[in-house]
Amino acid sequence: MQVGFDNISEHIISIDDFSLKWRFTDENYDKLPDIHLEQLKPLDKEASLFLWNYISKAGLYDDVPFKKNLFRTIDHLPNVLDNEKDTKKWLYKSGPAPEERIFLSYQRDMAMIVPWKLLVEYFDSFYYPVSDDLTVFDQSLNWALLFFHEDEIYFGANEKFSNYVQQ
After folding, report:
1. Are 155 and 139 in contact (CB under 8 A)?
2. Which one of 15, 26, 71, 128 is least enclosed by Cβ atoms within 10 Å?
3. C-beta separation of 105 from 121 below 8 A
């Protein structure tokens, strides 16, 4: 059966079989509580490739940081790891509802499904500057987040999310 958004959940693998599991299960890096670890849904190679191809066919990265005119607004946050609290606040304000399940694509053979709130809470476990270019999105592709390997985040969107917090 061909992978699609309608059956992608059938391609979830155990965290133990995920090559980046150490980021979430090893005390030397970050050991997530079991209640949060259970919400991480790593995908098999077929589903990961499906997401990779979806991004590619959409031309998401035809221009830098995103395809020209794909998003109405693009926001940028440099020096992501310099201030964890501000980065979490920026991510929360930028994105979808906390419970929304989103897709994370690291490489053509490595992807996950997680709730937005866990990405925000543990962004520094999901993203390692220098080694990672991480794409985060939902099926609609009305928004996307690029964790760029130079310690920067780009957020492109065609809508404002209800998470905006009054300052």
Report:
1. no
2. 26
3. no
